[in-house]
Amino acid sequence: MALDHETVQTGLRSVSEFGGSAGQYGLPEEDTSVAGLPEPRHGWVRRIINSVVAFHKSQQIEPYLADLCNKLAQDTIGAEGAGSPEGIDVMPLFVDPLPPAAMARLLGFPAEDSSRYYQWGAQLGMAFAEAVSEGRSISMREGCPEMARYVDDRIAERALLPTEDWPNDALSRFLSTAVDGETLSHRAIAVQVMFAIGAGSETTRNTLGSLLFRLSQDPDLYAEIREDRSMVEPAVEEALRTDAPAQFMVRRCLVPERELGGVELHEGDSLMLSIGAANLDPAAFHDPLVFDPHRDGLRDHLAFGTGPHICPGAALARLELRLGLNAWCDHVEKFSLGEGYDWASPKTGMIHGPETLRLRLTPSR
């Protein structure tokens, strides 16, 4: 396992020497998520994905997300018990609805279906954890057949329409984008969409929850952010560093022999790159356990990975987190942890964030 920032960063950037993903080895290319594809196929698929969810593409849904965040914040601050000493759980009210709604809007899927994304993601997570523990690979389709059928149906519906009637959303771009004259098959598109929904919902949810948890314990910092909204983005980056939603990534050595962090690795060896530990490395970050949005090098964290295989959904995640915190600041004057609240993490070692978050809220005047 690689723990320090320099070694983890090197491992993530060395994509020709370390690649793949846990439980994704030896599958047909059509059934392998972009995270599990080795080069050069990974790079080809990523070029399509980048064109589908590029920064300027994801920003097209910003007005919708801003309105949604505003409504969620209003509903949360007005919920019964919000001002009580015990507070209310803000995860189902404010945090949970945002990431799946963003994914549904981006893809052009029905908004009312997004409530199922977490259930599907949890099913995928359990299936992959079981497969990895048994030393076998598993496809996204095998991991969650219900989700696969759902995405297949959305693709089939779109494909039946005349192309001139296709809306300008991510699904249409998946179907129409060609790189070097080749487009992804419908089966391959379904796998990448499933991966995007699973990876893009739970991780952003957990980071927003972690961010509110951190700020609930520092009322002076929260007051500063409310007064100076230029502090919103630094606070988001610091939450990504201190509470990386994906705590580690698994890679496999792709070359006959390679040294990493003083350890000799050989072809086929698996290695775990601990993003959570790297983001708290004192050699890379001063007082790493302190939540400090004023620190230098705020984007030096590895929460989205780094190098050629950096998370293609990073821009969308940052957009959701920024809009979410801004809306929260608009409607909540101050807040603190509810009496008796105890942090509980998700039931998997890879994912980090609060399962529940009970807060006592004071509305803005």
Can you walk through the features of this model?
The N and C termini lie far apart (50 Å). It is built from 15 helices and eight strands. The radius of gyration is 21 Å and the shape is globular. The strands form three sheets. A three-stranded antiparallel β-sheet has the order 1-3-6. The chain has a three-stranded antiparallel β-sheet with strand order 2-8-7. Helices cover 48% and strands 10% of the residues. Helix 2 crosses helix 10. 45% of the residues are buried.
For the report, how would you describe the main beta sheet? 3 strands, antiparallel
Strand content of the residues, in percent? 5-15%
Number of domains: 1
Distance between the termini: 50 Å
Mean pLDDT: 94
Q: What is the molecular shape? A: globular
**Unreliable runs:** none
* Alpha-carbon Rg, integer: 21 Å
The CATH architecture can be named as Orthogonal Bundle
CATH topology: Cytochrome p450
For the largest beta sheet, what order do the strands appear in spatially? Answer: 1-3-6
| CATH class label | Mainly Alpha
The number of helical elements comes to 15
Helical content stands at 40-55%
The computed structural class is mainly alpha
Give the CATH superfamily.
Answer: Cytochrome P450
The SSE string, one letter per element, is HEHHHEHHHHHHHHHEEEEHHEE
Number of strands: 8
At a glance:
The protein is mainly alpha-helical and 365 residues long.
Task: Describe this protein with a few key phrases.
48% helix, 15 helices, three-stranded antiparallel beta sheet, mainly alpha, 365 residues, Cytochrome p450, globular
